[in-house]
């Protein structure tokens, strides 16, 4: 039992309650009437926070980092708080959290982690225009179906002033579409989002795209010129994209019908000089190839100067790639 008077320390700067086991709800109990009167708080870390929301008296004006993992919260607070110094907000596995407050005051927020917030259906519109936000983690937010802002009438202004670099929406199993992507995004991970039907136009800055296990995804938008990593493994409905960018270095086609289609276009394998070639990693050992093809190579080297199609990517495969016919 934590006495309410503990939080009456006005000069408290650092608060951490962590390292407890799975029975923490029965172990750490906050007495009724707790008032967070500290005005100097910089860091708050409280695993399995037991209250439904933070007290109205909670002062976050000087707060830099807040970590409330596996909490029982349904909301953070009501209204708008002064969050001018907040840089990192972690709310991992707050499975009862249903809404986020207006975060427009968090003008210095750089990282927002909402992994496993299973009851969260949408994001507050203020999040889309936070000027310093670089990382948005929505992994396992299984109730989010559409990433958009209800208050925005124009989709083109969804991410106004945004500097977001990394968007993780992996395992968002109800996600069907994303209205728009941030203009400076570098990494997009929507893997295991099994209901995803389409992606919007990809920003020119994108370097890493992971759509693995997106079983209903049928096509990709035009791939940006800086893309270096493409993971389309287990995308059973995906069609072969055209005009692959020259920048591609890693392509994962494991368990992907896209590769099966490609193989039919390859009639011969020639070994070329790969002295200056790039290594395009492939995970082929578990690839369910069609009956007329067998493959034992673990990597593919290419000296091609153009990757306009997957055919040109594979033509330099080492002679370990062998073809047989059904008659043979």
UniProtKB/TrEMBL annotation:
InterPro entries: Disease_R_plants, LRR_dom_sf
Encoding gene (name): LOC111241229
SMART domains referenced in this protein's UniProt entry, alphabetically: LRR_BAC (SM00364)
Domain of life per record: Eukaryota
Biological processes annotated in GO: defense response
Record PANTHER family: ADP-RIBOSYL CYCLASE_CYCLIC ADP-RIBOSE HYDROLASE, LEUCINE-RICH REPEAT-CONTAINING PROTEIN
Organism: Vigna radiata var. radiata (Mung bean)
Protein name: Disease resistance protein RML1B-like
